[in-house]
Amino acid sequence: MPFVFVNTYETKTIDFANPQAVKALNTALLFKHYGITFWAFPDTNLCPPIPGRVDYIHHINDVLNTSKIYNNINILDIGTGANCTYPILGKAEYNWKFTASDIDESSLKFAKKIIDKNKLNDSIFLRLQKNSAQIFKGIISSEDKFSASMCNPPFYKSEAEAVEVTTRKLKGLNKEAGKVIRNFAGTHNELWYKGGEKAFLHNYLYESSLFKDQCNWFTTLVSKKDLVKGMQASLKKLSATKIKVINMGQGNKISRIVAWTFLTE
Prior knowledge:
It is a single chain. The protein is of the alpha/beta class and 265 residues long. The protein is 37% helix and 20% strand. It has a seven-stranded mixed beta sheet with strand order 5-4-3-6-7-9-8, sandwiched between helices. Strands 1-2 form a two-stranded antiparallel ribbon. Helix 2 packs across helix 3 (85-94).
């Protein structure tokens, strides 16, 4: 195990600033706990932390349970990426079916290989978003019915902002300045969006209102806490009938899920 070492506290650990070490850890977690035997994609693509992704899955399950939605669960994953993490976890934990979208054709090819190698073709289906300015439009057809949507939005406005945040993180890990390497990697499609997280989320909210009868619950991760109040105000204007804000924490990272529906009981 080349990435494991004993730290000053006499504890075995890995270098969490090393993206290859982080990827190896997540691959091992998927194999040991979720039976995923193949999980390979380019090192340049985002490698998400598995515990946080599983938390999101569990919270969606709780939301569906409160709405008494127990059977034939079909989830729409917006921006599944090359790693296809949410679909493979949701299938492993709850036997859900997934439709997963992405704007990057190359990422979908790697996701398809993960699906094929793990024999999940009957449970996970991929769709290419051909228009990068759209989120649900071009993905949800008139015949589709989804139990919930989920999304891990791009957090940054630009590469410069992504580099700045990563530099601060590396200083916190006592790493010397130099070439900035994100420990979870990530391509520009995965990390930044014109206008940043706020612009993406408000586009997500607006487009969800166009498909209000085709998805029971729309959900998304929200990194910046100060965006939540504006989202709640926008959703009320869009006539959402219920809005939930679910706090979620893993280690030192604090995030939240915002979930909403346009339906009534």
